[in-house]
């Protein structure tokens, strides 16, 4: 009788362990979807010049660094940076597609890191038309139960004229935003294509 009780107790303990593992996996899957939605929402807001909506996706102490222009610290500085970008309107194309995610989540810490590829179509009617492609190495964290961007770092790989193509070279990176000084210098000095750019990886293996 005692042996059977022990066997039942072990079986219950095993089931509890399996349930805990399943719950943890389910929570991680939910977090993955939420982070993907967060990053995709950022891209859609940037597409249409919805700067305040995009800034609201960032944590209060977040940082933003794009194309070697320096680091902007804090959500309101992120907001200011975005508002200095060209306004969206007639004849303006500013597509920023968020693709190819590799995401690692620390469920216990409520943090995550993600690597993305952003493909860009940028231009203005009767002015310019350009292709762009960048690698994002981002960090995320839970803020009041919601995933927010804690660090957004876009490494510009290539920016080139649409009608010339990359076989003719690339456009030099714009190193500053008119009227808005960065809070910190760039964390990496580089030039885009035709120079090779390898954004640091947050992972060694998946």
Protein traits:
single chain, 206 residues, alpha+beta, Nuclear Transport Factor 2, Chain: A, six-stranded mixed beta sheet, 29% helix, NTF2-like_dom_sf, SnoaL-like, Nuclear transport factor 2 family protein
Report on this structure:
- There is one protein chain.
- The protein has 206 residues and is α+β, with helices and mostly antiparallel strands.
- The chain has a single domain, classed as Nuclear Transport Factor 2, Chain: A.
- Helices cover 29% and strands 35% of the residues.
- The chain has a 6-stranded mixed sheet.
- Strand 4 and strand 5 form a beta hairpin.
- The relative contact order is 0.16.
- The mean pLDDT is 91.
- Give the low-confidence spans: none
Helical content class = 25-40%
Q: List the domain count as a whole number.
A: 1
Oligomer: single chain
Taking the sheet with the most strands, its summary is: 6 strands, mixed
Strand ordering within the main sheet: 2-1-6-5-4-3
Order of helices and strands: HHEEHEEEE
Shape: elongated
What Rg do the Cα atoms give?
22 Å
CATH fold assignment: Nuclear Transport Factor 2, Chain: A
**CATH first level:** Alpha Beta
């Amino acid at each position: 009788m005692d042996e059977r009780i022990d066997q039942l107790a072990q079986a219950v303990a095993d089931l509890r362990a399996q349930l805990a593992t399943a719950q943890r996996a389910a929570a991680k899957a939910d977090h993955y979807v939420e982070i993907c939605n967060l990053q995709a929402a950022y891209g859609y807001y940037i597409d249409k010049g919805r700067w305040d909506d995009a800034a609201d996706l960032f944590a209060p102490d977040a940082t933003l660094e794009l194309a070697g222009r320096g680091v902007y610290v804090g959500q309101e500085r992120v907001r200011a940076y975005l508002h200095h970008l060209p306004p969206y309107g007639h004849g303006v194309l500013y597509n920023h597609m968020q693709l190819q995610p590799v995401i690692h989540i620390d469920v216990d810490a409520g943090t995550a890191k993600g690597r993305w590829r952003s493909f860009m179509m940028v231009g203005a009617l009767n002015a310019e038309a350009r292709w762009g492609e960048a690698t994002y190495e981002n960090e995320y964290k839970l803020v009041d139960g919601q995933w927010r961007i804690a660090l957004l770092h876009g490494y510009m790989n290539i920016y080139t004229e649409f009608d010339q193509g990359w076989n003719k070279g690339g456009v030099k990176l714009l190193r500053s935003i008119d009227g808005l000084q960065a809070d910190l210098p760039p964390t990496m000095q580089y030039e885009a294509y035709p120079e090779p750019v390898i954004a640091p990886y947050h992972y060694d293996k998946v």
